Amino acid sequence: MHSMRASPSPSPSLKLPFPSNLASISSSHGRRSLRLSSSTGAVFAQMESTITITRPDDWHLHLRDGDLLQSVLPHSAKQFGRAIVMPNLKPPITTTAKALAYRESILKALPTDTDFSPLMTLYLTDNTTPEEVRLARNSGAVFAVKLYPAGATTNSQDGVTDIFGKCLPVLEEMVKLEMPLLVHGEVTDPSVDTFDREKVFIETILTPLVEKLPSLKIVMEHITTADAVNFIESCKTGNIAATVTPQHMLLNRNSLFQGGLQPHNYCLPILKRETHRRAIVEAVTSGSTKYFLGTDSAPHDKKRKECSCGCAGIYSAPLALSLYAKVFEEAGALDKLEAFTSFNGPDFYGLPRNTSKIVMRKSPWKVPETYSYASGVIVPMFAGETVEWLVCEE
Ligand SMILES: NC(=O)N[C@@H](CC(=O)O)C(=O)O
Ligand SMILES: [Zn+2]
Ligand SMILES: [Zn+2]
């Protein structure tokens, strides 16, 4: 097995600075320790600079296949209990049989010391049948159907061209099966400005879809705009939720051009302006149960990112949890982190929450410049930069 080697290796520092926004809280012994009670009633301890939370799941992950799968999988499997595995392989995972075969290849590539579970998805096309979706549900291994508007993103060319014209029977079946539809929410009309594609999708596809099928479970994946937040908030029925990536909470569109073109910050939907980033952070750290962790970690070989027509996708799996902790810490909302990482997702999907825990410590470490795999290298998000939180007991 090719496991992914970091180069240079992370260098945990011995310094353990205390989170600045919590510095005013100290016990009668003058030691910085506190117990925080999350909004759902679960209690976790924060002693010195550590956080113990229920093991998180990743509700939007690209594991790829072949060499890349072998190398990226351990990063997710070490930290997360489960992941919703995206089906946009080449060729895409359009049938239950393909999903089961893909699941087997993931299980084969898993390190022996984890009980990580891949939750499979079906790639919706114009030709997907209700029978196929029933088969998927009955398999017990497929947990959602993914809508890629044809041409919207990486490997979406076989996606849906006309959801209302072609997919209604399938969607009606999904309502009956309580099978969630996961949505890449961007229109593909080339006349629509790239930065407006999510907003226009909400207006022209998502809103009419919810009107037509009000009880369909929908996850709007990787939301990027205040418009998406407003849409999610406006849905009062509990069957519409959203995943949020670290990049859309930490970066705005300036990061695409800082000091020159930055291909490793290029993902879809594209980063938006600061006002949108703030709206997302505010919604997610408010404690609403409608948002949950979905890294959209999307590895591409360095050569395919740094070229004249680079791929969209940011590789964040090794550091995503550190980044989410940073966002919640900076918002003064560390007590709400656990619900976002570990409760809201399984609750939405109707799955049990994980029972094991992970421990994160304030222990700055340097993100490797690259991770190597059998056929090349991958440049992670924030390559070469220092992040503060370290997942230390996995
Ligand atoms: N997010 C991305 O920029 N890329 C994803 C596809 C996707 O999730 O849209 C990928 O598969 O590379
Ligand atoms: Zn997408
Ligand atoms: Zn994705």
From TrEMBL:
Q: Keywords of this protein's UniProt record, alphabetized? A: Hydrolase, Metal-binding, Pyrimidine biosynthesis, Zinc
Q: Its annotated pathway?
A: Pyrimidine metabolism; UMP biosynthesis via de novo pathway; (S)-dihydroorotate from bicarbonate: step 3/3
Task: Note whether Hydrolase occurs among the keywords.
Answer: yes
Q: Which reaction does it catalyse?
A: (S)-dihydroorotate + H2O = N-carbamoyl-L-aspartate + H(+)
Top class in the EC scheme: hydrolase
**InterPro entries for the chain:** Amidohydro-rel, DHOdimr, Dihydroorotase_CS, Metal_Hydrolase
Entry EC no(s): 3.5.2.3
The molecular function terms in GO held by this entry are: dihydroorotase activity; metal ion binding
Taken from the record, one Pfam family name reads Amidohydro_1
Which GO BP terms apply?
'de novo' pyrimidine nucleobase biosynthetic process; pyrimidine nucleotide biosynthetic process
Q: Do the record's keywords include Metal-binding?
A: yes
Domain Amidohydrolase-related, residue spans: 58-366
Which Gene Ontology CC terms are recorded?
Answer: chloroplast
> Which family does the similarity line name?
Belongs to the metallo-dependent hydrolases superfamily. DHOase family. Class II DHOase subfamily.
Q: State the name under which the record lists this protein.
A: Dihydroorotase, mitochondrial
Q: Which organism is it from?
A: Rhynchospora pubera
Q: What is the lineage of its organism?
A: Eukaryota, Viridiplantae, Streptophyta, Embryophyta, Tracheophyta
